[in-house]
Amino acid sequence: MKIRPDVLRTYQSVHTWTGITTSLLLFIAFFAGALTMFKPQIDQWARPASLIAQPVSNERIDTLIEQAVTTHEKASQGFIVNFVEGGAALSWFEQGGGRELVRLNDELTYATLDDADKLQISGAQTNELGDLIDQLHRTAGIIGKVGHEDLGVLVLGIAAALYFIALISGVIVLLPTLVKYLFALRQNKGANRFWLDSHNLVGVVSLPFHLLIAWTAVVFAFHDPFYGGLGVVYGDKPLFERGGKGTQTYDIAELPSMVVYKQYLQQMAPDYKLEKLEFSQLHTPNPTVAAYLAADDRPLRGGYNDIIYFHPFTQAVGFSTVNLPEHGVYGPVVKSFFALHFGNYAGDYGRWMYFAMGLLGAFLFYSGNLLWLEKRREKKGEQRKSVKVMAALTIGVCLGAMLGIGSAMVASKWLYLLNFPLNHAYLWVYYSVFFAAIGYSFYRGAARSAIHLLYALFAVCVAIPVTSLLALVVPGMPTWTVAQSGLMVEFMAVLFALVFMVTANKAKYRAYYGERNSIWALPRKNELESNDFQQVTA
């Protein structure tokens, strides 16, 4: 396909500037988003088995609830029942609770029964590691609120809109050579050409995924103005019907048994697995129970579940994300938007696919920045200041974000030895490491800091399985079990460690033996030392 050169230059400019202004934010969002595909597994890995609710059999769960709500006021106001294989576990919020994604100060009380059916309780602060990574995915780590919305969500919404434009303009620029060079990875024409071929290949192959993510991210970020705009159509009539306020307060003793709830939900959602019931406001005229339902063979409205909110005493449904006949066409259509963004419509296979696509997306933004830098570098003499600044930002932000997440995961188990607010510590660890990496990148320069930060990433990834091993033998540690996450986190950490080690060696080799007039080149201090390194890395 032939396109006029002036048109191509226009789209090239649009692609370049929409990409370079959003790439760092989107790198963080995509890397963290890839990890959130397995948020439940990360949560299970981070939470000690000895500090979570111990399940009782299905036959004893009603006895456990009865004892808890009659002896503990907080439990009588609301509690959580987690259903596991062959039983159920009970807990309630001693402090905090609510529907916010991240609540740093929540404390849970766990209840179980001993062999004599006597109530046993224990308490612990919640571990929000998975939710904090999810929040990083949604906001790129930007702190602050605009009204009731996170500032970072709105900023990422704008970035997603520009990212959509970058995708379209990038495809147009690539059209004249698409067929000839799509699968060409020309390693013999220099590192710049290899990065360009890789960037184009990843962008084109994953284009449907990126268009979908960009579009849904904009809708998620600006859903309030979108719904507000529909007021032109609906007038004063509310778009969503809200249930009226209740007038009757019920006695907690009238609460049906768990078997009744299971049978009720089985009728409403026969092909789902009930994972959790969350009761709240039981002491008010507006009590609610949220039923979390999982399925691996269909789109889900939430990241990992569909949810039915209903009255715990009358079973009147207030809101449901399960497709019901009264939802008509609207329900499945809206749910498909959520499911396509969350990647939950194909079970674990779909989540692994989204995990890989998320990492490739992060690579796409990183490689785009490298191409921008290569195109603007000086072939002779000192590099321009703008190139040096962008190079330092690219290395500091991208590697710093990954290093911050990895450091928070390493710190997770050790923080239990310290009497320190766990979730606040995660924030301190992440932001300290993130900004330290950016500062180090500016202080030492992009080329040297890239090597050092990649080796630091290797060390942090190795420390994750080492920490898991040491946590089993260090006195004073809570108890973790292999069954909690099946060693998946440790396996992935080792895999990432190998990737970072290889990448660090290649970056070091390029710094000393690559093109000398490059922003990634470093002066050779000792020829003999360089020769030794060349033999090792060759």
TrEMBL record:
<keyword id="KW-1133">Transmembrane helix</keyword>
<protein>
    <submittedName>
        <fullName>PepSY domain-containing protein</fullName>
    </submittedName>
</protein>
<feature type="transmembrane region" description="Helical">
    <location>
        <begin position="153"/>
        <end position="179"/>
    </location>
</feature>
<feature type="transmembrane region" description="Helical">
    <location>
        <begin position="480"/>
        <end position="502"/>
    </location>
</feature>
<feature type="transmembrane region" description="Helical">
    <location>
        <begin position="352"/>
        <end position="372"/>
    </location>
</feature>
<keyword id="KW-0472">Membrane</keyword>
<feature type="transmembrane region" description="Helical">
    <location>
        <begin position="20"/>
        <end position="38"/>
    </location>
</feature>
<feature type="transmembrane region" description="Helical">
    <location>
        <begin position="453"/>
        <end position="474"/>
    </location>
</feature>
<dbReference type="Pfam" id="PF03929">
    <property type="entry name" value="PepSY_TM"/>
</dbReference>
<feature type="transmembrane region" description="Helical">
    <location>
        <begin position="393"/>
        <end position="416"/>
    </location>
</feature>
<keyword id="KW-0812">Transmembrane</keyword>
<feature type="transmembrane region" description="Helical">
    <location>
        <begin position="200"/>
        <end position="222"/>
    </location>
</feature>
<dbReference type="InterPro" id="IPR005625">
    <property type="entry name" value="PepSY-ass_TM"/>
</dbReference>
<feature type="transmembrane region" description="Helical">
    <location>
        <begin position="428"/>
        <end position="446"/>
    </location>
</feature>
